[in-house]
Amino acid sequence: MNDMKINEIQSGAVRHVARQFKWMVDTLYSGAWSTEGPAPLVVNGALAIELYLKSFNAQLVFKVGYEVEPGFVSYEDMVTEVLSKAHQPSKLYKDLPRKVQAWLQQEFAEERPGQDLGDWLRQFDGAFVKWRYHYEGNASRVPVTDLLHLLVFFESRSQEVEANNGVLPKK
After folding, report:
1. Among 6, 84, 117, 163, which residue's Cβ finds the most Cβ atoms within 10 Å?
2. Of the candidates 24, 4, 167, 162, which has an alpha carbon nearest to the alpha carbon of residue 78?
C-alpha cells in the first residue's frame, strides 16, 4: 500500500511551531531587546514568517498503510510534509497554492492599500541566515515594524482559517 496524502489549507502542526517563534518575538519585543540588539528578535521573526508561509502549503501524510481487514486500512504514522523546501519568504509566497496566495494578498491589500505582500516579504529574504551570524558583517537593515506587522498579519489569517474549520474564509 502507498502512503495516503491529504492537502490542507493550513497545517496545524506547522502553524503551532510558527506561533512558538512568534511568541518568542512578542516576548523579546515587550522586554528590553534593544539594549542587547535586535538579532534574536529578527532571527525568530524571520523563522516564524517562514513557518507561517510553509503552514499554508503542506499536506498530511499517513505512512505505511496496510489493510487490517478487507476494506479497512490502517496507517502507523502521520506526519506533515511541507510542499515547498524554500527558505526565502518571497519564494515561499510564490510557491503557495494560487487560491491561498490570492486570499492572503487580498487580505493584505485591505490592511495596506496599494501594497504588495510579495514585496513586503522580499525584505526578509535571507534575514534568518544573515542575522544569525550578524557578527560576520553580512546583516542588512531589517524594518522591525514591518516584521512585527507581518507576524500579526499571518497569525490573524491563521486564526481565521482555524475558526473556519480549516477552510479559507469567504468575504
Report:
1. 117
2. 4
How many domains does one find in the chain? 1
Q: Of 15, 26, 13, which Cα lies nearest the Cα of 50?
A: 15
pTM higher than 0.85 for the full model?
Answer: yes
Largest CA distance in the chain: 65
Single-letter residue type at 83: L
Residues 3 and 62 sit within 8 Å (Cβ to Cβ): yes
pLDDT band at 5 (very low <50, low <70, confident <90, very high): confident
CA nearest to 120, candidates 133, 129, 131, 109: 109
Examine residue 170 and state whether it is found in any structural domain, yes or no: no
Query: Which run of H or of E encompasses 97?
Result: none
Residue 171 has pLDDT above 80, yes or no: no
Q: How far apart are CA 32 and CA 142, in angstroms?
A: 18
Question: Does the residue 85 lie in any domain?
Answer: yes
- Domain of residue 141 covers 4-161
